[in-house]
Amino acid sequence: MNVTADGALLLPADIRRAMALDKDGRVTVQVRDGELVVISPMAAVRRLQKKAQELGPGSRLASDELIAERRAEALRE
To answer: In 1-77, which ranges are continuous DSSP H helix?
Structure first.
């Protein structure tokens, strides 16, 4: 793959198909440990779904814990 003078990078059709990208699809690009990582929207959704499942129904969010602490402090005052 080549990078053009203006910084454009053309993803070959087989890679776009493997990533399930539309004709004019958008991607997220990150640099991790000096490597370029291209993330499709579907992959980003799957990653978020996995994180949500890991939280589980019984886990509490940090914001919920903070609210509970503030309410407890208010009751003590």
So the answer is: 13-18, 41-55, 62-76
pLDDT digits (tens, 9 = 90+) for 64-75: 778 888 888 888
pLDDT tens per residue, range 8-56: 999 999 999 999 888 777 899 999 999 999 999 888 888 888 887 777 7
3-state secondary structure of 9: strand
- Six token digits for residue 40: 């499709």
Give the start-to-end residue ranges of the domains of the chain. 13-76
How many Å apart are CA 44 and CA 39, to the nearest integer?
7
Judged by DSSP in three states, 47 sits in helix
CA distance 76 to 46: 43
- The set of long-range contacts for 4-10, using a CB threshold of 8 Å and a minimum separation of 24, is none
